[in-house]
From TrEMBL:
Keywords: Signal. This is RraA family protein. It comes from Fibrella forsythiae. Gene3D superfamilies: Ribonuclease E inhibitor RraA/RraA-like. It holds the Pfam family RraA-like.
Length: 306
């Protein structure tokens, strides 16, 4: 066993020059080995657009509950200032990590960036990599004054590339300008008119911490007014389908309670055969209320013996 594990660890944690700025494809595959599907050019898992569309309608609490049941206890963080609180945001995570500036660290990072064709300040480098459907998630150390990772210029670039927005454990400037970008949204710790100061971007597409949440590149993020939840790519389909089913059951149960067809005690406990049959009939009569493909629902219910 040791002869197998040791080469894997050496490969995963070897640090070629590129890894000083951006995790290699091999390292991303190491951190996301449970994902068996398509990957982006940079190595991140690429969950389908269809699942992203469905995720936007999922309740944050339901998604969090499914993750907890799977043993993922550190995927949520709250207490945000939100640019458009009424609008949900979903996407595939691209991460960046920031640290306080230190000359002997910052200089070689910038020099290496130049050899790789990266231009501008380091806080623009992750933006250059964004693709449609990505969400830029950054550990900005919670810094507000001098921690403004973007203003409206970079905000316009982010939205042009991703059509989404940002989640920053840090701050932004030019709030009015960001609000003028139709469709752009952001979950941040604060706003400040200062420019970014004494901060260096140290890694792109690394696992990072956002508050109490662990974030891995390629995760899906579901951001709503309650907070943000990060979903590992390999669990995305299970989380979305399970959350959709919970919402579907709740929809049925609430209607039955309003109509007095079943009691709260009956609905809240393991369902009897007559409730299961009523649920099946209700689904057939209300196809517009079914959020997932019917084939997926039928298989899920069969597996759950419903």
């Amino acid at each position: 066993m040791k002869t197998v594990i040791l080469p894997l660890l050496l490969a995963a944690f070897s640090l070629p020059a590129l890894a000083q700025i951006q995790l290699s494809k091999e390292q991303l595959q190491f951190y996301t080995a449970d994902w068996k599907g398509e990957r982006s050019a940079d190595g991140r898992p690429r969950v389908s657009d269809a699942l992203l569309t469905r995720l936007k309608k999922v309740s944050l609490e339901e998604a969090w509950g499914v993750l907890r049941n799977e043993g993922y206890n550190n995927q949520f963080d709250g207490n945000w200032q939100i640019i458009r609180p009424g609008d949900a945001m979903v996407g595939r995570v691209l991460t960046a990590q920031y640290m306080p500036s230190r000359p002997d660290m910052e200089k070689p990072i910038k020099e290496l960036g130049k050899t790789q064709g990266r231009s501008g300040n380091t806080n623009s480098w992750p933006i250059d990599m964004l693709q449609n459907g990505d969400v830029y998630v950054a550990d900005g150390m919670g810094k507000i004054v001098g921690g403004t990772l973007i203003g409206d210029n970079l905000g316009n670039s982010i939205y042009a590339k991703s059509k989404t927005g940002v989640i920053f454990d840090g701050s932004v400037r030019d709030l009015e300008g960001l609000e003028d970008i139709s469709g752009f949204n952001g979950w941040v710790r604060g706003y400040d008119p200062s420019y970014i100061m004494d901060m260096t971007m140290t890694c792109i597409n690394c696992p990072i911490r956002i508050g109490r949440a662990v974030v891995v590149p390629g995760d899906l993020v579901l951001a709503k007014k309650e907070g943000v939840v990060f979903i590992p790519a390999h669990l995305a389909e299970k989380v979305i389908l399970s959350a959709e089913f919970i919402a579907l059951k709740d929809n049925f149960g609430h209607q039955m309670l309003r109509e007095g067809k079943f009691t709260p005690g009956q609905i809240d406990q393991a369902w009897t055969a007559d409730i299961k049959q009523a649920f099946q009939s209700w689904i057939n009569a209300n196809p517009d209320k079914v959020p997932m493909p019917r084939a997926d629902l039928d298989k899920y219910m069969k597996d759950k013996n419903l």
